[in-house]
Amino acid sequence: MRSMPPAVLEEQTTSVSAPIGRRIHIMGDSCAGKSTLGKRLARALSVDFVDMDDLNWQPGWVALAETDPGEFERRLAAATSGDGWVVAGSYTRHAQRVFWPRLDTVVWLDLPRPLLVRRVIARSWRRYRTKELLWGTNYERFWPQLMVWNKEKSLVWWVVTQYKRRRRQLVHFMSDPQWSHIRFVRLTSPEEIEQWAARVEAHVR
C-alpha cells in the first residue's frame, strides 16, 4: 500500500481556497464529531444532512448494513439522489458503491486515539444516564462499552483496535487514482476542525 507523502497530506488538510462542492462525506472514528460537523456544513451550504447511522440502525440494534445491505444501499442512494448533501458516517464499502463516484469532498476527522477513547466513554455514560433515545427505538448501554475483549459490543474495542487500520485505509484512498476526482480534507484536532469549519462558513457566505 503506497502512503501519501506528508507534503500532500498537509496540502489537503486545511485549505478552503478550492470549492468543497455540495456533495460531501464526513468520515472518522466513533466520537470524532462527524454528525456535529456534518449538520454545521449542511446548514452553511443549504443542503440536506444524511446520518448513515439513522439509515442503518433498526429496533433492537439490528444493523441493516449487515442484515440487508441491499436495502441499506437503496436507502442511502435515495438520501443522496439530489445535487447537494452532507453525509456523516463511515460504512465505507457501501458509500463507495453508492455515492463516491459523484462525491466532491471527503472530510476526514483524524483525531488522536486517546481523545476518541475518552469521548466514547463520556458519551456512552451520558447517553446511559439520561436514557437518550437513539435512532428512534434504541437505548445505549454503558457497561458493554468497557468490555474491550468483545468486539460485538464495545465501541472502545473498535477505536483501540481498528484505529491504525482505518487511518491506513483513508491514506490509501487519498492516493488511489479511482478517487482522484474527490478532494480530501484531513483535520487532526478539535481546534483544526473548528477553524476549518469557520473558514468554510465564511467562504460560502
Order of helices and strands: HEHEHEEHHEHEHEEHEH
Structural class: alpha/beta
Classify the helix fraction into a percent range.
Answer: 40-55%
Gross CATH architecture = 3-Layer(aba) Sandwich
Our estimate of the beta-strand percent is 15-25%
The dominant shape is: globular
Give the full name of the CATH homologous superfamily: P-loop containing nucleotide triphosphate hydrolases
| Unreliable segments of 5+ consecutive residues | 1-14
Structurally, the number of domains stands at 1
Instruction: Write down the CATH topology.
Output: Rossmann fold
Mean pLDDT: 83
Q: Determine the N-to-C terminus distance.
A: 40 Å
Number of strands: 9
Strand order in space, largest sheet:
2-5-1-6-9
CATH class term: Alpha Beta
The total count of helices amounts to: 9
Instruction: Please outline the major beta sheet.
Output: 5 strands, parallel
Summarize the structure.
This protein is of the alpha/beta class.
Could you list some keywords that capture this structure?
two-stranded antiparallel sheet, Rossmann fold, alpha/beta, 5-stranded parallel beta sheet, globular
